[in-house]
Task: inverse folding
């Protein structure tokens, strides 16, 4: 594939974001933060397009990689999972990506997000990276993907960041040494030195971001709850793209202020609010519009996602940037169920949050390609049933639209809301 063809795909992604942004502006019920979110997406992929044109250093990386380090070294990041998901969603490329993955002989049981990104790299739909960076956070698929992506990128230089499973002092020291090795690797590959002042600034902003996440979560406790259900996916991507960067600060502060204004006015995301839901794992990306429509019809809203948007206690110290980055990697919500042992504290937290957020029911999006999350379904169902919170298990696939039967999913949701209505 020529550079012009790849540029065309990135151009189309940017144009699609701009179009959605324009359409969102004219809708009277659109949040200003949602409009700005599409600006963030467009800017991210426009910068990536320009970086390839200008021959800049591009670092492809998997999910939860510490991009604060990349920004501090003026390296252009390319989030592999988020980028291929965005390409599939904005351009409808899922069939092409998954077909290419099948040609690579990747089994259908493998996570479709990772099959899709392997397909994207095989088809050369994304820019060729200068380096490939990956880790074992958050799952086995992530740990395996980086090696394959580097191979598909003409065996570009690569670095694997090894995360210990628990946060003992010894393991945190080990992780800090891994981060030092990462920086040394990047300094050799780029010919640049780490800008430690810039990294400290990024850590300070990230600490502020985490506080903003907590404020947003607190505002969502209000009855009625002010945040639309699909919005938590936007929060995730803002962090994936712009962790520790001013763009994420602007987005999160705008969202926080909008939600605070709605709470003061007694206004909810859906009116009237009838059902408050806990969301467990991620819904099928291509059906977010359908889910939002069904939720709105029944006056339902997701008020808490324990393992994606709920950050526990903890602060970051800009005077100790590497230690803080290591600490953040232990603080991210997804670790609690997808990495390492499932502790009693995590199970208790589900019960506490269900009570704090006045949850009427929970939906477990059982993503068939994820062994980690599906292994916890019965545990979570049992513990929530003890406090009389019913759980709907909704089998789906995160990426593959052929495995998401819209009629079946809608029917199951309708039946679940009927059950909640009869209680």
Result:
């Amino acid at each position: 594939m020529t550079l012009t063809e790849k540029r065309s795909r990135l151009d189309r992604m940017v144009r699609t974001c701009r179009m959605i942004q324009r359409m969102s502006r004219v809708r009277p019920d659109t949040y200003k933060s949602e409009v700005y979110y599409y600006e963030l997406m467009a800017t991210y992929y426009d910068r990536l397009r320009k970086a390839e044109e200008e021959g800049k250093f591009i670092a492809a990386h998997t999910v939860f990689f510490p991009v604060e380090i990349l920004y501090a070294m003026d390296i252009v990041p390319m989030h592999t999972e988020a980028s291929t998901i965005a390409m599939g969603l904005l351009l409808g490329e899922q069939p092409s990506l998954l077909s290419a993955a099948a040609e690579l002989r990747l089994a259908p049981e493998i996570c479709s997000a990772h099959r899709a990104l392997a397909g994207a790299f095989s088809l050369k739909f994304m820019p060729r990276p200068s380096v490939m960076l990956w880790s074992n956070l958050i799952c086995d698929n992530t740990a395996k993907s980086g090696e394959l992506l580097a191979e598909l990128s003409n065996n570009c230089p690569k670095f694997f960041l090894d995360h210990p499973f628990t946060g003992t002092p010894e393991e945190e020291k080990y992780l800090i040494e891994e981060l030092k090795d990462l920086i040394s690797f990047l300094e050799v590959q780029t010919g640049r030195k780490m800008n430690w002042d810039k990294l400290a600034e990024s850590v300070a902003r990230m600490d502020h971001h985490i506080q903003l996440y907590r404020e947003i979560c607190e505002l969502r406790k209000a009855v009625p709850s002010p945040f639309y259900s699909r919005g938590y996916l936007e929060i995730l991507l803002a962090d994936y793209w712009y962790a520790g960067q001013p763009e994420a600060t602007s987005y999160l502060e705008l969202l926080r202020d909008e939600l605070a204004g709605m709470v003061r006015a007694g206004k909810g995301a859906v009116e009237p609010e009838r059902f408050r839901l806990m969301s467990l794992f991620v819904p099928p990306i291509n059906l977010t519009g359908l889910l939002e429509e069904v939720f709105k019809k029944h006056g339902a809203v997701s008020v808490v996602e324990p393992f994606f948007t709920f950050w526990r206690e903890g602060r970051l110290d800009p005077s100790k940037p590497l230690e803080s980055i290591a600490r953040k990697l232990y603080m991210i919500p997804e670790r609690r169920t997808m990495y390492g042992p499932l502790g009693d504290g995590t199970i208790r937290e589900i019960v506490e949050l269900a009570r704090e957020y006045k949850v009427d029911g929970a939906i477990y999006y059982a993503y068939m390609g994820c062994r980690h999350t599906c292994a916890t379904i019965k545990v979570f169902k049992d513990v929530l049933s003890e406090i009389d919170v019913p759980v709907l298990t909704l089998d789906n696939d995160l990426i593959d639209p052929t495995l998401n039967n819209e009629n079946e999913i809608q029917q199951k949701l309708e039946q679940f809301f009927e059950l909640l209505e009869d209680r």
User: Anything to note?
Assistant: The beta strands are 58-61, 76-79, 131-135, 158-161, 275-280, 300-304, 361-367, 391-396. The chain has two domains: 3-194, 219-422. The domain at 219-422 is CATH 3.40.50.11900 (Rossmann fold).
